[in-house]
Amino acid sequence: MTDQWASANKRWAVTQEQLAGWLDSLAKVRTIIAPRDVSGVLLFRKVADSSQVAWGFGRTVMSVKEAFLPSTERLLTIHKTGQEVRLEVELAEGQQIIFGVRPCDARGVRMLDAVFLDSNPVDPYYAARRANTALVGLACRQVGASCFCTATGGAPDEAGDMDVMLYETGEGYLVEAVTERGRFLIPGGEWPQTRQPRPQVQPPEAAFTVPAREDWPRFFNQAEYWDRMAERCHSCRVCAYICPTCRCFAVRDEALPKPGEYERIRCWDSCEGKNYRLVAGGHRPRSVKGERIRNRMFCKFMYFPEQYDLDEAACTGCGRCIDACPVNLDITEIVTELGRLA
Amino acid sequence: MSDNPMKPYLGRLAEVKDLASEIKLFRVELMNGGCEAFQGYQPGQFAFLSAFGLGEAPFGIANACGQGNTLDFAVNRLGSVTTGLHEMGEGDILGVRGPMGNSFPMEAFKGRDLVVLGGGIGGAPLRPVIQTVLANRADYGQLTILWAARHPSLLVFTDEYEAWRSAPDTRLHLTVDQADPAWDHNTGLITDLLRKVNPSPKNAVTITCGPPIMIYYVSRMLGEMGFSPVNNYVTLEARMHCGLGKCGRCNLGEKLICVDGPVFNMAEVGNMLETFL
């Protein structure tokens, strides 16, 4: 799809000022979410105009997941009066643009789509946000120290999951319309079209190979290995929260200030948590930490792809979990080690 | 299901009665579109019940479709949601989402002998199977029910045992782990009872539900008795927060109990059962 658009000459060369001006004009009619410095933490947040964008950013601390699957969101408002109950649902409204999406994060959105959009039943909360949101991607000029997108099938300049794709050229940006929705965002006449080729990013060679899905069952009973990994793990779950594809959630009811009113919320959760599977009777499967680490690894490389009919791993290679883990558990080391053990 | 599968239908509690110690039967009359959604649901399917303000949890539907315009649920008071449900009375409103999950292949069971093994409240999702067989008695072979609980006070559906016993080609065997002075049936684990009853695997299928440890050992014993894994059915449960294959919580390997199950045969999950314990 990308190549068709490109060959139809949908490519423009713009300066930094033109790009900023474009964002400013879009910000007047839509919500713009972009990498922003929030007290020293780089996050995707609403920006009022281009001056609030953290230009020159590398990788945000959190992925764009939270724009579609917020860490906490309200599913229902519950009104109880006597024996009567009334339920209210509010879905997200208003058009928005996420600016500066890295290819690994856009790929993460594709994984979330597989869960919330492409398998029945469709999740209406996710679907509303997805329908209202355009992705403006930015290719990586450099590959970060912990990045490994090429090992999981991605690329630092992959445009396929974007609506608009930007490439830094040195003098400015090359802009590509990837989808029709992206084309409508671009002020056609005002920008000079170009036949200039995409700048090439030389991705590092993949440092390891992810074993084929059918090989994973052979790693299942390496209990000694998983337990050794687990000795370090705090079950803090930071790996899951920052992961672009971890989508497990919990649903619970909370009281609102007004008597008789409650909200039903869903919030992120993770299979790394000790009580994740605890049932009211006290039964707790996967009570051993090593089993939980194993489950998360298997989910990324085997279960998730099988459950949602994907022909690729549910790991984008963004490397966030490597940087964030307080005890240096490294997904690339685990996968490499498994390949060696089998 | 409605266009928002996370939004429950409303149901009115038509009847609440004690089933066993701390276990109540809730008879729910569906409102606002729920009737259509639950039309034609199958034995083995489940639903989420909401105690609004406290949360929701999944429960096996405990009656066969078409036996009255209501859904039965057996609820053991254990956590916050089930405590909230237990505090409700007739006429109160609760939420119902479903029907969810797959079901027992009752059509394929026709002409075969059935061995039904229920442990404690695990008997609840098996009751629609028993009801379906008894309502279409000529379609099925011998029905052998092995029904167990930790204690006589925890046996569910006791007021239906007489009807089960007196149905043609139907046997009911009861056991409890710990008897009381009034108990005049078997004492011991359901595996002891299974060994004693010793059902023939010839042209027979088994259906088991109970605590995970019981499912594990019963399934192993059935295998040793010659029941092939494909004829050895279980219905599993797990903590779930959506029932729609999205929240990720109920996985058993690559299977999601909520959408791929809750009914499985041992050929499908036999090698994963240890992770379920």
What labels would you give this structure?
heterodimer; A: 342 residues; alpha/beta; 7-stranded mixed sheet; 4-stranded antiparallel sheet; B: 277 residues; Elongation Factor Tu (Ef-tu), domain 3; Rossmann fold; 6-stranded antiparallel sheet; 9 helices
Structure description:
The complex is a heterodimer of chains A (342) and B (277). Chain A is 30% helix and 21% strand. Chain A has 342 residues and is of the alpha/beta class. In chain A, strands 1-9-8-7-6-2-3 form a 7-stranded mixed sheet. Chain A has a 4-stranded antiparallel sheet with strand order 5-4-11-10, with no helix packed on it. In chain A, strand 4 and strand 5 (84-88) form a beta hairpin. In chain A, helix 7 (223-232) crosses helix 9. In chain B, the strands form 3 sheets. A 7-stranded mixed sheet of chain B has the order 10-9-8-7-11-12-15. A 6-stranded antiparallel sheet of chain B has the order 4-3-6-1-2-5. A two-stranded antiparallel sheet of chain B has the order 13-14. The mean pLDDT of chain B is 95. Chain A binds chain B through residues 75-76, 78, 80, 83-85, 87, 89, 115-116, 119, 121, 123-125, 247-253, 255, 262, 264, 266, 269, 271, 276-281, 283, 285-286, 291, 295, 298-299, 302-303, 306-307, and chain B through 1, 3-8, 10, 50, 52-57, 76, 78-79, 81-82, 91-93, 95, 211-212, 237-239, 241-242, 244-249, 251, 253-254, 256, 275-277.
* Net shape of chain B: globular
What is the highest CATH level, the class of the largest domain in chain B?
Answer: Alpha Beta
Count of the domains of chain B:
2
Overall number of strands of chain A: 11
Helix content of chain A: 25-40%
- Which architecture of the largest domain in chain B does the CATH hierarchy give at level 2? 3-Layer(aba) Sandwich
| Spans of at least 5 consecutive residues with low confidence of chain A | none
**How far apart, in Å, are the first and last alpha carbons of chain A?**
39 Å
Chains forming the largest contact: A-B, 46 and 44 residues
CATH topology heading of the largest domain in chain B: Rossmann fold
C-alpha-based Rg of chain A, rounded: 22 Å
Side by side, the strands of the main sheet of chain A go 1-9-8-7-6-2-3
Instruction: Enumerate how many helices of chain B there are, as a single number.
Output: 9
Strand content of chain B: 25-35%
Order of helices and strands of chain A: HEHEEHEEEHHEEEHHHEEHHH
| Binned strand content of chain A | 15-25%
- Overall mean pLDDT score of chain A? 92
Unreliable spans of chain B are none
The helix-and-strand class of chain B reads alpha/beta
Q: Tell the overall outline of chain A.
A: globular
